[in-house]
Amino acid sequence: MKEDYIFTRELRDVSPPWNRTDLPLASELDRVLEPTAEHVSEAVSTLATFLRYLASASEPEEQVYQALPRLREQDAPPNYYPYDIWLSSRIPTFGDVTREGIRTEIGRWRDRGWLSVAWENPPDDTVSAVAEHWSYGVVHNATGTLMQWLQPVLAEGKHPAEGRRFCDLLARYGAKVDGGLDGEIITGIVEVCGDRAPDLLSRLAADSSVPEETRQLANSHLDWLMKQRARGTVDGSEADES
User: Which pLDDT score is estimated for 2?
Assistant: First the structure.
């Protein structure tokens, strides 16, 4: 039987809690997830998996609008889709996400005003558009939450090897993922990467493939960092070396 999974085996094998499609805020995770060596190592490994995925994918937003045209008429904030919470509440982990499962859920939306027609069996293009868009958003959001949890833990300098791995990942993928994570990436560089931070920020600010807003943000953080170091108010040593 052909596998029906949306996510790759690597993503389906991500350790809890990072495999949840409804991952709570980092502030909530702080209360239940201790920053042990094992948890920190798993988090950095998961970050690598997430960044590899995001660097090779793109948000298929236009396909969703074509498949579900009434979404353009929704009075909702930018990048919000009314089916996000619906799917996450019914498909709780990456390993549960299948094409047929999403087809079943779309078939239950007939009375919710998201569809231009009512299908007993939604067509493949609609299923694919929703599946790809929602799964991309799930990983994107999980990546942001993971980085928000991980960055202050690594900034303490108690996990030097993982701090180096973290900075290596930002160096490799920082310019390859979309701008929605630029705040987490740039803050991670400043707070964790120590002496590597100026070079990493400079590279990000100079990369013409990066959105202008992200380049400006990197440049402003670089200016701030260099001024603070000139005043002696920021330690230039790496946070991951203790």
Answer: 54
Asked if residues 81 and 134 have their Cβ atoms less than 8 Å apart, the reply is: yes
pTM, to two decimals: 0.88
Beta carbons within 8 Å of 126's beta carbon, 6+ residues apart: 67, 68, 106, 119
* Domain extent listing, the chain: 9-155, 181-242
pLDDT 10s digits, 85-117: 889 999 999 999 999 999 998 888 877 766 666
CA distance 235 to 59: 38
Contact between 143 and 93 under an 8 Å Cβ cutoff? The reply is no
Question: Residue 102 belongs to what H/E stretch?
Answer: helix 99-107
Residues shown for the chain:
242
Q: What is the DSSP letter of 18?
A: T
Rounded to whole angstroms, how far apart are CA atoms 239 and 242? 7
Confidence at residue 241, expressed as pLDDT on a 0 to 100 scale: 44
The whole-angstrom distance between residue 92's C-alpha and the CA centroid of its chain comes to 17
Instruction: Give the 3-state secondary structure of residue 20.
Output: strand
Tell me the C-alpha distance between 72 and 65, whole Å. Answer: 7
Tell me which DSSP letter residue 14 carries. Answer: P
Per-residue model confidence (pLDDT) at position 1: 43
Q: Give the residue ranges of the chain where pLDDT is below 70.
A: 1-3, 60, 69-81, 113-118, 234-242
